[in-house]
Amino acid sequence: MLNNMKSQLFGALKKNLAVTTGSLIAFSAAAGTATYELTKESVTLTLNGKKQEVRTHADTVADVLAEHNIEVRSEDYLFPSKNTPITDDLNIVWEASKPVKLTINGTTKKVWTTAKTVKDLLMTQQIQINEHDRVSPSLDAKIQKGMAITFDKAFQVKLNVGGQEQQVWATSTTVADFLKQQKITLNELDRIEPSLNEIVNENTVVKVTRVEKVTDVVEEPISFAVVTKKDPQLLKGTEKVISPGEKGLVSKHYEVILENGKEVSRKLVKTETIKKSKDRIVAVGTKENRSQSVSRGNGTVSQEFYVTATAYTANCSGCSGRTSTGISLRSNPNMKVIAVDPRIIPLGSKVYVEGYGYAIAADTGSSIRGYKIDVFFPEQSSAFRWGRKRVKVKIIK
């Protein structure tokens, strides 16, 4: 009985001891966990614009980011730096860089950037932007992952259009695209230098020659022909106009090439007769004068006929002042001399010229052919007053 009671008492004590020991272990574990949590640092973490509060035992900023599976690139934005120790209430900001394809003046490269806009990216690349530069997409465009960005630096180019030269801004492109940018419309015949496929650079001079093909119609008169007919009813040396003649009219069509408004070539492509000319018909006398010679105070008239008479002086342009028979007209200004065609009036003949008087046929002239004479005057004014007239000439024996 006594032994049984001891056994029950010992069992109860053992059970209570086990419960107490378990409770102590659980309490110690709970106390340890609470202590571990209480020793963590409180950190504000902003990842790509999203803010969160975290508690950590990490030693550095790099360790905190590693806990969030973040690999930091050198191009990423990170503040503070990776090696900064963790302190309570520390603010960590991380912005991941984005890959873009950047082409500058034809050269392409891959760039990682945290820039917000295209303009910001170009500034980080130390590119100064001019208002004439060409950028695609626009400077205000937001940076997107994998975006393709093109930047072409503008430069000045000489542009000559139709002879007018100016300095304009351009980027490296073909001549064809350059002209489109300058809003220049090309005509079918225009000449462009250099060719439309050439690339424009700073040393290029773009020249547009405006070429036009036009038709020019010119009306020109057609001279009439002079037809002579022998008339036995008229005295030899006399003429009579039967028909005065009439000028014709022809239309000539020319193909004219103009470059910058100036004519460079002209080609006759068509001729049209608008009005035909009419010949002048002149009757020339062939009848011999068989009248009896008439006695005159200065001799006998052997022949008389009409001629066209002009006048000259000894001081005319190209004149020597001496007749073809050797008479010095300058030394003998008062002599009555005429120039003749020796075939009609023999040199040395004494003549009577209507309106001029008695004279000597003592000179010739290159333009004196046929029934023409030239009468001599000492003064130029007298020669001018004589002019050109039709007069009767009598040859005196």
Structure description:
The protein is of the alpha+beta class and 397 residues long. The chain has 5 domains: 41-95, Ubiquitin-like (UB roll), CATH 3.10.20; 98-152, Ubiquitin-like (UB roll); 155-209, Ubiquitin-like (UB roll) (Roll), CATH 3.10.20; 213-284, Resuscitation-promoting factor rpfb fold (Single Sheet); 290-396, RlpA-like domain (Barwin-like endoglucanases, Beta Barrel), CATH 2.40.40.10. The chain has 5 helices and 25 strands. It has helices spanning 2-38, 61-67, 118-124, 175-181, 380-386, and strands at residues 41-47, 50-56, 77-79, 90-95, 98-104, 107-113, 134-136, 148-152, 155-161, 164-170, 191-193, 205-209, 211-222, 226-235, 239-243, 248-259, 262-275, 280-287, 294-296, 299-312, 337-339, 350-353, 357-363, 372-376, 389-396. Strands 20-24-21-23-22-25 form a 6-stranded mixed β-barrel. The protein has a 4-stranded mixed sheet with strand order 2-1-4-3, with no helix packed on it. A 4-stranded mixed sheet has the order 6-5-8-7, with no helix packed on it. The N and C termini lie far apart (215 Å). Mean pLDDT is 86; it is low at 27-31 and 291-297.
Write a compact overview of the structure shown.
The protein is of the alpha+beta class and 397 residues long. The protein has helices spanning 2-38, 61-67, 118-124, 175-181, 380-386; strands at residues 41-47, 50-56, 77-79, 90-95, 98-104, 107-113, 134-136, 148-152, 155-161, 164-170, 191-193, 205-209, 211-222, 226-235, 239-243, 248-259, 262-275, 280-287, 294-296, 299-312, 337-339, 350-353, 357-363, 372-376, 389-396. The longest helix has 37 residues, at 2-38.
